[in-house]
Amino acid sequence: MRLRTIAVGLALAGCGRIGYEPTSTDGGDVDVAVDAGPIGTFMACDAPVLLIDLGDTGAGGASSFYLDVAATTTGFVAGWQAGSTQTHTSGLAISSDASGPYLHTIQSDSMLTVKEGPMALAAIGDQVLLGVDDVNADALKVFPLAETGYDRGGEVRIDGYRARGHDWVTADPARGRFVVTAAASTGGETVAFTRDLDGNAATGPAPLFPVDTESVAARPFGGGFATITGNSSNCDVVLTDSALVAQDLSRQAISMTCHNASLALSPDATSMVAAWNCDNDAVWTTGGPPTGALPPYHAVYGDGTNSASNPRLGTTSAGVWFAFQVTGDRLGRALLGPDAEPLPGGDAAIVYTSTGFRAYDLATHGDDAFLFWIEVNASITQLWSMRLCPP
Predict the structure, then answer these.
(1) Residue 17, class by beta-carbon neighbours within 10 Å (0-12 exposed, 13-18 middle, 19+ buried)?
(2) Is 354 helix (H, G, I), strand (E, B) or coil?
(3) How far apart are the first and last CA of the chain?
(4) What region, left, alpha or beta, does residue 113 occupy, with left being phi > 0 and alpha being psi -120 to 50 degrees?
(5) Tally of CB atoms within 10 A around 268
(6) What was the pLDDT predicted at 36?
(7) Which of the 8 DSSP states describes residue 134?
(8) Is-cis flag, bond preceding 205, omega within 30?
(9) Which of 129, 263, 339, 370 is buried most deeply by CB count within 10 Å?
(10) Strand partners, 183
(11) pLDDT class for 27, splitting at 50, 70, 90?
């Protein structure tokens, strides 16, 4: 599905929601007027913007929250969970003028499934795949979505495997498929599956790591993939071939506790940047060509007073954005080069503070990078965003 340009003006109906709600949920085109210029909210640099007021989701007493955001051709799809044992999705369009990008809500809240657990999103063009871990069914469930966030095909199960981390669904656009990484529910193995654009089985399981993991991520690299996993003893970086078969000679261990392992490629896709947090109140990184020995790792931010964790990575032409959370109420960011060192003016800094902060993600669209986060005030849940601008 793609945005279809129309030449007439668009009247935004006020129904307690922000933005335009498509009248169709079956995969039809979304009509948005662009002839008169961008619509929606202008995303100024480093300015928090309330995108969607989601109302009372039952989040007031919730203990777990999830948010994941994928960039589509049209804009972004956000998947979120906020205390109601349900997975919801929202759709955003992006447009620009000479001053910069605008974000516009095209679908504010679609309840996708009555399940809650680790989730991940990836997109190829305007075709999105959402994965949700289902602890009660001992399975993963994947859902093909449109760029609005609406379901376009129903769930597909992967029985006997469980999600690990926040980045376990990956787009493989060169091959027109998605990669789903998972751990066997009986323990002892981390594997990769491929799925077509509708979530149907293609290949797998292919063995990635001979042990279970806390988190795992993959990125297309060269003719195959660069992958990372993390656990209580080390991060492990492995290259695979196009069939996702690990090449043992490439295996590199990063010898420290490795939670929330994340991976991104440099703008020219010749180097990788890895991120994780340890048990020592800091977020860490290393970077370089994964075909050679990675350089020594170093801390990006955090200490005993300002405990940093849960890093996210995103790539633009300016460099690799590194986002992290500090204690329970702050978001920070840094801008790194292909060697994972801060670029001039890109040192780590706190950019947002709120006692209502619950979950976040970092997503890029072309050369624009955005933080997205869920905020809860009393029982009201809101989706916010902030554009990150290079120095």
Answers:
(1) middle
(2) coil
(3) 35
(4) beta
(5) 9
(6) 64
(7) E
(8) yes
(9) 129
(10) 162, 190
(11) low
Tell me the pLDDT band of 79, cut-offs 50, 70 and 90. Answer: very high
Closest CA to 93 of 81, 108, 101, 105: 105
Does pLDDT of 84 surpass 80? Answer: no
CA distance 337 to 328: 28
Would you say 90 and 82 are in contact if contact means Cβ atoms under 8 Å apart?
no
Find the radius of gyration of the CA atoms of the chain: 20
SS3 for 250? helix
Residue 304: how many CB atoms within 10 A of its CB?
8
Q: How far is the C-alpha of 206 from the C-alpha of 245, rounded, in Å?
A: 6
Flag whether pLDDT at 74 surpasses 50. Answer: yes
Reported for 200-209, long-range contacts at CB under 8 A and 24+ positions apart, including other chains, are 200/156, 201/156, 202/177, 203/243, 203/244, 204/180, 204/244, 205/161, 206/240, 206/243, 206/244, 206/245, 207/245, 207/246, 208/181, 208/238, 208/240, 208/244, 208/246, 209/236, 209/238, 209/246
What does the pLDDT read at residue 186?
85
Q: What is the pLDDT of residues 218-272, one digit of tens each?
A: 999 999 999 999 988 889 999 999 999 988 767 888 989 999 999 999 999 999 9
Q: Is the pLDDT of residue 6 over 80?
A: no
Instruction: Give the model's pLDDT for residue 23.
Output: 42
Written as one letter, the residue type at 136 is: N
Using the CB atoms, write b or e for 23-50: b if 16+ within 10 Å: eeeebeebbbebeeebbbbebeeeebbe
Q: Kindly report the length of the chain.
A: 391
Mean confidence (pLDDT) of the chain:
89
Residue 23 has what DSSP assignment? S
E strand or H helix at 157, and its extent?
strand 156-159
Q: How confident is the model at residue 37 (pLDDT cuts 50, 70, 90)?
A: confident
**Measuring CA to CA, how many Å separate 248 from each of 19, 232, 252?**
50, 21, 9
What number of H helices and E strands is found in the chain? 0, 32
Strand order through the sheet with 100-113: 41-42, 100-113, 87-97, 75-82, 65-71
The residue with tokens 């309330």 is 50
| pLDDT one-digit tens code per residue, 110-124 | 999 887 788 999 999
Q: How far is CA 221 from CA 244, 279, 285, 362, in A?
A: 11, 30, 19, 21
